[in-house]
Each structure stands twice: as C-alpha cells, then as structure tokens.
Amino acid sequence: MIRRLFLVSFFAFSASWARAAERPNIVFILADDLGWSDTTLFGQTAFYKTPNVGRLAQRGMTFPRAYAASPLCSPTRSSILTGLNPARTGITAPNCHLPQVVLEAAPGKTAAAGMKAVGPTVVTRLDTKYHTLAAALKDAGYATGHFGKWHLGPEPYSPLQHGFDVDVPHWAGPGPAGSFVAPWKFPDFDPATPDEHIEDRMAREAVAFIEKHRDEPFFLNYWMFSVHAPFDAKKALIDEYRDRVNPADAQRSPTYAAMVESMDDAVGTLIDALDRLGLSEKTIIVFTSDNGGNMYNEIDGTTPTSNRPLRGGKATMFEGGVRVPWIVCWPGITVQGSRNDALVQTCDFYPTFLDILDLPAAPGQAFDGVSIVPALKGGTLKREAIFTYFPHNPPVPDWIPPSVSVHSGDWKLIRIFHGGENGAHRWKLYNLRDDIGETRDFAAERPERVRELDALIATFLAETKAVVPVPNPNFNPAAYHPEREGKPARKESAKPGAAPKPRPRARKPSPKAS
Asked: Closest by alpha carbon to 486, among 336, 321, 375, 333?
C-alpha cells in the first residue's frame, strides 16, 4: 500500500513537472511614463525612434485601446501583480517610497479651503497578503526574476516577499537612483563602466537570468526605469537628436528622445537574446507602460513629451494619462502584425496568464480584470466597462479634482466627486470614437447617458469597497476658483513625479541574476 501511494505521488509529481516544463516563458516589459504617442505604433511621432518596439508589434498583437489602471505608476504596478483595481487595494498614488507604512486606506480629513472634496489616505505598501502573479507562477514551477523599478514598498514588501527569486538592483525608489548614466547611487549595485547606462545594465542582467534558466520555464519581470525623471541620457544620443529637432513639433526634447531610444535598445537586447537562445517560439512577451507621458516637468525648454492627439498626460484622468502602448506576442496564437480594438486594462494580465497556462486562482481569489485570451486569439472581448479610480488632484496641466471614470463602448464618463453644487457630483462625458482628444463634453446634452454610466460607477465603487472622497468640511466658497481647474500650479510649486534624491539606508546585498 505504501509503495502504491509512493508511485502515485511520484507519477503525479512527474506529470506536474512535465506540464511546467512545457509551459511558455513569460517576459513582461513595463516602461515607466511612456506615453501612447511615444512609439511608432500609432503613427504619432516623427521624432522618436522605436524600431525594436516595432519588431515586437510585427511578431504579435497591438491593442490601440489599452489602458493603465491609473494615471500614476504604483497603482498600475499593483494592478498587474494582483489583478485588482487600485480602488480595491487602496494604492491610488505613488507613495510607496515614503517612510510611513499604511496598509489600509481611510477617509481623508482635511483639504485646502478651495477644494470641494477630501481625498482618502493612500496605502503605501503592496501588502504581502496578496497572492501575486509572481507567487502564482513560482508555485507552478517558474523561475521568477524582477529587474528594474519596483515602487511598491521596500523590505519587507520588496519583490523578494512577493514571489520573486531575485530582485536587481533591489531598489524601492520612484525612479533611478540619481541618474540614468553612471555614476548612480544604487546601494550595493556599482556600474561596470564609468559611463554605463542603467537600462543597458538592466538588460544585460535580465539576459543573464534568461541564460541561467533557459532549460526551465521562467517569468522575467523587466520593469524599466525609462523614461521616468530625472531627465538625462547618453550625451552622444542627445547631441544627435538636438540636430533633428523641429521647433514646430510638440515632441522636441532631444534628451527625452535619447531616453526613448535607450529604452527601445533594451527591448531589442531582450528580443535578440531570446532569438539567440532559441527561446522566442516558446516565450510570451508583453510590452506596455504604467501610465501616460509626462506633460508637466520641463526639459530642454519644453515638456518632456506630447501625447497628442490625446488630451492631458501623466497624473490626469484624460486619455493622455491612462491610454498606453500595449503589445502581446504569444507565438502560434496571436497573429503576427495584428491589431485588436478590444478594451483592455492592466488588471487583465494576471487572469489572462492563469488562463493561458491553465492554472487555477488561489483559494478565495478573485480579480477585477478579465482574461483577454479571446482577443489574443483574434476574437472579440465581451466586457461591459473598465474603471479608473484616481481620488487625487495633483497640480498638473489638465488636472481635475478627485474623480473616477468609466469606459464603456465608445463612451467615457468622468465623475468628479462632490464637484457640483451643494455637495453633488459633477460629470464630464466624451465620445472617444469621434473625439479621441476629449474636446467636446456631452454631459449637459446627454443626461440619460450620464445616468447610465454613473450607475456603473456606483456599482464598481460598492463592489471594490473603495474608500471614496468626502465633502470638504472646511470648504470656503470665497477660496474656490474653478477657473484654475486644469491649469498647472505656479512655477514655485513642487512638481509631482520628479524623483527625489534617495536617502542612504542599510540594505541587504542584492541577489545576483546569475
């Protein structure tokens, strides 16, 4: 009897191991602050060069109507790893590098006298109670590696506590430490050459991980530092682009263009490695961005980029803040060079990978995202709506007060919490099929559509148990200036999103990729 049980267990283990060995590798490439118009995918740039992103598009499927779960980075990153909307996790702002540990959102208490709503407090760490995508893949026999930016909390909330075997350079900050080009200030992670670019280095580290695990399934989570602030790049590249600047082009920063090229070079390094090792046909590759392009900082006398024809950018609820480039290469399944107009969001990745790999969710686990496998196979994706929850109002161009939006079909409704009269909400309604730039607000003309879509928002907020903004008890009508809505703060105000100088602190040595 004991021998029989042993044989049953042995063969079950062998079958499980064999299934794991047959499963495809996953390479997940996440750019930081790369806008929808910052690549050549949609014909919106004549200045930036992204041939390797173009190579990926030729190998897989591009989604023109793809969205980050938030217009800022940490919330979107949390959505990828949990399959949950930031409204549910409470990570609604990029505060995960701050020293305060907050694991549950709570109603806010104060706001400036001129603001009608008070946003909630923000969760500052990705709680280890979540069974992440990395943990699920590790349980299924995958080697798991995180390379690059994290921004979901330092130890004990680092990638090493969320299912990753290795984490390089083991950095919890909001951007690269000091600069993109060495000398940088990553603890325990020195440059190999005096002028090494961090993206070149990260790509080489990632390739070493691929080489080490070439004979077993692996999950490479390559979350780039590019193209987030601080704005610097290889000097020779900047000089090259400076000679190509067209002053009439809204995209005219040579520094940013050089940053985009280095980002694209790293994508090419990964593609070339997979090709060289004979792994391309059994590797799923994803490429996307965590939010829209930065339109509020300044470099080379202009904004870093332009998201035209989209309105707004990073930290706004308009399309420029949340619509992102998105490519999936699934060899043998996605039609090469194809496009799909399905409405997709970063919450969808986790359930999609479980579906692809025929893996169960953890006991009691549910997702806000859905599997997009039907779309990847060339079909249609049946879903009613996607939601973006952003209960904040950073002072950037095209900002609006704390709000939530719904995309459903061709329509997009933004609810501005308590932004109307006597504490009532206020709405903006756009038809994106005819007006991708969100220039015409239909809210006053289509009240029935507003009610229909706002009912979806109400259900979403209830189901996610979102901690929502409340009326400002200190609101003073005399201090209210609606004409300032959508306009950036004065020059002397702090510019949100710029990477603060890192604070030295003790860290464990970073695990090596090889």
From this structure: 321
